[in-house]
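Example with several molecule types.
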Amino acid sequence: MQAERITSVALDPAAPITPQIYAQLRDAIIRNRLAPGDRISETEIARTWSVSRQPVREAFIRLASEGLLAVLPQRGTIVSRISYSAVLNARFLREAIEADIAKILAQDPDPDLVRELRDQLEAQEKLAATSPKDFIALDEQFHRTLADGAAKRGAWKLIEGLKSQMDRVRFLSLGHFPVGKLIEQHRAVVDAVEQGDINATETAIRSHLREVLIDLPQIHAAQPDFFDVPEGGVPEPVNAPTQGGNDP
Amino acid sequence: MQAERITSVALDPAAPITPQIYAQLRDAIIRNRLAPGDRISETEIARTWSVSRQPVREAFIRLASEGLLAVLPQRGTIVSRISYSAVLNARFLREAIEADIAKILAQDPDPDLVRELRDQLEAQEKLAATSPKDFIALDEQFHRTLADGAAKRGAWKLIEGLKSQMDRVRFLSLGHFPVGKLIEQHRAVVDAVEQGDINATETAIRSHLREVLIDLPQIHAAQPDFFDVPEGGVPEPVNAPTQGGNDP
DNA sequence: ACTTCCATACTTCCATACTAGTCAGGTTTG
DNA sequence: CAAACCTGACTAGTATGGAAGTATGGAAGT
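Resulting structure tokens for the full complex:
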């Protein structure tokens, strides 16, 4: 079948097998080496790594619960197509959570944290010219640092799960996304936090997270087979207002 | 062992077994019929329902990923203690998400939705005098309706997972929590949404969600064995400001 | 009394066999 | 000729046996 693309790394027979299978498959799916819509089977994957079906099956269960695989009972298992609405939904949730995190930071700015973030900004600019693949890692580090700074590591763990859906899109859009602009927005967040301006911080983080998937429609148009548009037409994103309100 | 408390319901041998085991165990844990710290084993549970160990194992995996079980390799499986910080974290996340949902609703109030919510408020008041157990179901319905009204069903699905941690606490506090006050707060949310007052809506939903676990310290003091306090002392909750900001 | 070793009875993890549902294609039947 | 019906090659779901790791209690040695 098409599973030769994931044979790359050998397994450590001493370590637990299930998590290794899980990690390999997850990586293959997020990086689109396993294309959305591909059919795979427990037996096939088990043969690929010369293990039994059991650990493969358990890895499938975990991947299915993340929405990366769809297990059809007695019929087969397919790599989920990228759900347009799930991606928008993940972005919405991420925005809601990170907005609150950022507000906590601005409420009581920590100079050490600001310094750490500014260091990261420098590193990001150094990589701006080079591979965008590395930038994704730095971007992840930046947002994780924000969560840790607000003592919300648990929140980040949840965001990681949401990110898997968004990252599939980002790996499709590699090459043409505006690294410079993203860095500028990162800087705006840090500035607002440093000044303790809660409103400005919220606005900055929200507009940043809306920028991340700005080219989703183009990517969808370029590779519609990778996507699963629920029914007729592309859903419109609905977001909360960027700031508090506008009473009459 | 202590597993006789979950023998209650028989299984349908025709339907898939794994989800049935999962649901039964989840229910038993959340309602504290299986006490935090209890040791259970695949073999034991399998015997209880006269099935093989395999579906039990798969149910264990799902429960462990939700944080309700802790599987220690080659050692055993225990019912997770209620993590104090995980509960606070779940509440923080829920507040962030539901605040944005409520703001969307207030942005463009839907009269049909408001009517539906007011009907639910009536039903809640009718049950206020009777069993608080039933109120929890209505409360859940209320919040789910808010999410659906903002077309964020996906968000609700995630909140359901978070709620499992919080619900364990609520089932411990049954009997003495302020149903009337909660209903009053529900009404405040509906009022604010109806008036399209975004700030008031946000304030209402946030203070409501902070009320829900108001008696967490007492519950913890009453049954400390059920809890797992990470290290020395009870963590302080840190929340985002209830509204936008306060620039200098 | 105290430590070390080892047998034993657990546990989860992995491999294998079997069951049952699904689908595609050829065959038979009306 | 068409439609219904077998049939065999898949699939995931379940059952069961054995492997490897871990805790525990008692025997042996210091």
